[in-house]
Amino acid sequence: VQLQASGGGSVQAGASLRLSCEASGDTFSSYGMGWVRQVPEKGREFVAAISRSGDSTTYADSGKGRFTIARDDAKNTMYLQMNNLKPEDTAVYYCAARRTWSESYVPTQGYEYWGQGTQVTVSS
Question: Where do the H-state alpha helices sit in the chain?
Answer without folding.
Answer: none
